[in-house]
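TL;DR need structure tokens for one chain.
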Amino acid sequence: MSSLLRIDASSRLTGSHSRALADAFETAWSARFPGGTIVRRDLVANPVAHIHETTIAGFYTPPESLDQKLKGAIALSDELIGELNAADTVLIATPMYNFSVPSALKSWIDQIVRINRTFTYDGTNFVGLVKAKRVVVVAAFGAAGYGGAMAAADFVTPYLKFLFSFLGVSDVTVIPAEATTADAATVASNIDRAKTDILKLVQAAA
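>> reply
TL;DR here they are.
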């Protein structure tokens, strides 16, 4: 059975373009994979805690040496990694904030990027361990031109592509909607274009 993990990172709980794109993806995915399972993780409605000193200590402590304090410190990370590895498809819905990802999304990333759980390092090589088959990022960019003249200012697309590749997911697709702060007609056109790309991607998914 196919499974989808949906991650929403927009601070806007209403009127969010990235959430609207994620809704379109989820609707198309549900039609493509009827009976599939969907897990939703809203990083704003239910924020993920920042990692702390004890969290980091727990990450680097062998499982057999974890005491109750360290087990508690990494319990959320364990839960989030479990959701990630149970999914065939991971959907990340995010806006660009100040040229990068929102802090809510970064908190989730810091919890799931973990030595010997989502990647290994032997002193020479890194190997990703994440089991998801694909990651799809639907992103809302307030300005235009990130696919051209503004490309150097886009720290969302290259970051997320590199991150998930590092974790072992080779199939990473970013579908952007640019100029979401423009006039209504431009916004509607760009959102519709992104939704068309979403539908094509889902219909082609195995």
